[in-house]
Design goal:
about 270 residues, alpha/beta, Metallo-beta-lactamase, Chain A, 7-stranded mixed beta sheet, about 25% helix, globular, binds fe (ii) ion
């Protein structure tokens, strides 16, 4: 078993006194599972968690969250897509908080499969009343007097895929886009070229095609993004590093770009 990397459980990405963004990078330890980042946005007594993960992270994450918020004040649990490391803990949030689950409308019919009949019977409301379904074109999600923008990222990685842009901090929470496999997940990337090997294999397989990564990069270039923060690995901070990543991903063949008849041979 590899030793846990010593680091604090949370890191403040942004804090202007009334608006705070935090990342939790070290809740999955050793060889338990792939390293993941979970995010908390707090705004004037309102709060949202982005990509909370599964059972593996639920308990340590809630322990960390209670240092910053009352769990009963949590407005949203937001999922960029449907993967287990993103939202498999949904039943626990439904049971133990009043939060609304936010996800693509394409996953709304599938997410109830994560919850047992016991969980759904314990809810005060019908499951659908606890779910905010995002339309394909995205949405502005109100968080007190602020908003979070659900930005379309379809087919980058999932058929119904969103990223979440916080206009106050100018952080784009990018889900699996920009992910890296590294032990230094709490540190922003400082040497882009040296960081490429930690990203390359993942993006070649887990992103769908260059056609959509280029469309996505084009939109992000039009946005005022100070930081791209992925759900695995290290963030990209500042205009230069954000542009380095957009240039790199726009030129990378990935997913179906790389497939040939040889990949579909009878085993
Ligand atoms: Fe994923
Ligand atoms: Fe992921």
């Amino acid at each position: 078993m590899s030793a846990p990397v010593p680091q604090s459980a949370s890191r403040i990405l942004f804090d202007n006194g009334e608006h705070k963004c935090l990342v939790f990078s070290s809740l999955v330890k050793g060889d338990e599972g792939v390293q993941t980042n979970q995010f908390l946005i707090v705004h004037k007594g309102h709060a949202a968690v982005i990509d909370p993960g599964g059972d593996l992270t639920y308990t340590p994450l809630t322990i960390e969250l209670t240092k910053y918020i009352n769990l009963q004040d949590l407005d949203y649990v937001i999922a960029s897509h449907q993967d287990p490391d993103v939202i498999a803990s949904m039943p626990r949030w439904l049971m133990h908080t009043r939060a609304t689950i936010v996800a693509s409308k394409l996953w709304a019919r599938f997410l109830p499969h994560l919850a047992s009949p016991f969980v759904t019977s314990m809810l005060n409301k019908d499951f659908s009343e606890r779910l905010l379904e995002l339309p394909d074109k995205g949405a502005n999600i109100p968080l007190g007097d602020a908003i979070l923008k659900a930005v379309p990222a379809h087919f980058l990685h999932s058929v119904g895929n969103f990223q979440f842009y916080d206009p106050v901090s100018r952080i784009l929470f990018s889900g699996d886009m920009g992910a890296s496999m590294t032990e230094d997940a709490h540190l922003p990337v400082t040497d882009f070229q040296a960081h490429i090997p930690a990203m390359r294999g993942f993006h070649r397989r887990y992103m769908c095609s260059r056609r959509v990564t280029q469309l996505w990069a084009g939109v992000v270039r039009e946005m005022d993004v100070d930081m791209i923060v992925p759900q695995h690995g290290r963030p990209f901070q500042g205009k230069v590093m954000v542009n380095n990543f957009l240039d790199w991903i726009s030129a990378l063949d990935c997913g179906i770009d790389l497939l040939t008849e040889a990949d579909y041979r009878w085993p």
